[in-house]
Amino acid sequence: MKSSVVISSLALALPAFAAPAATTSAKPIATPQNQCQVDYNNCLAIGTPEVMCSCDMTACLGEDAARLREWCASKTSTLTSGTATATAAPSATATDCVAKDNACRASDPVTGLSANQAQCSADNAACKGACEESYNTCRTTRGPDGLSANMAQCASEYAGCLGENPFDKRSAPASAFGGVAIHSGSEIQYASVNAAESKFWLLKDSATYCPNVSGLVCSNTTSTQFLGGDNTLSLDTVVPGGQQVFVAVDGSLSFTAPHSAYTGPDAISTGFSVAQEGQHIQFQGEDWLACPIDGHYAIYAAAIAKDASACTGFAFRVADSSAPAAWEYS
Fold first, then answer.
1. Domain span including residue 82
2. At what angle do helices 65-77 and 50-60 cross, to 10 degrees?
3. What is the pTM (predicted TM-score) of this model?
4. Is 190 left (phi over 0), alpha (psi -120 to 50) or beta?
């Protein structure tokens, strides 16, 4: 599903992996550059606007949020045409993305000239990308005591950076969609959310099944696809009755067996929502945890999981999918 952020076609000229000039406190490189390039290519492949992918890559290379915002803004500002176009000076009180965008789009109070609207769109996209990166860093960083981040504080700072509440309920995707994990610079960055063994995983193949029934023709889909997101979530299947997605009592993201609605005791099948302008699936207003098991990562709801000490936080980003529905997942 494409981001609803309006990106000027000029922003597509943003360099894919040009490193920003070393002017202020850059952090040590966190991930090999070739892996950052792979993540960047995968980001483009799922339909994310290039300006966001470029900013993700900058963060992957080790830049902090302030440098990320500065670099993205400086790069997008060079994409204007050769002729000078006046842009309204930001208000002294414009500190969040919404306020900055409103100030940018206003006519210049001194000259009366109109703002460069394409430039404002590019700047706004860079601002939102920087806020998202700061939020991801906040909620996946443990304190000196080893405890998990304060998710409520991270969410509050994120909303303050944007100038709006990104956790407001959004419309669910109108068609089937896939999911990818977002945690910049980590092993799970852009890993697909896949269904197997009644659970959901990262870095593990989907498990689909087609019964051996005369005359039955199943698709060759090997990816995992979802439907819904407005309170409930299900798998995109052909099997009669479908397969419901739910969160088990231990917090693990799970799905029902074919021909059954049984979820187990105290499981929760409601509370799913679409946030961040239609980009992310959440549960009870929070994101997800990837917990290592035998070389793979099982997915748990951050709102329910009891022990996250060995897990990595991530966002469940909606990804476009045009594949046919599987018969069922096993």
1. 9-162
2. 140
3. 0.54
4. left
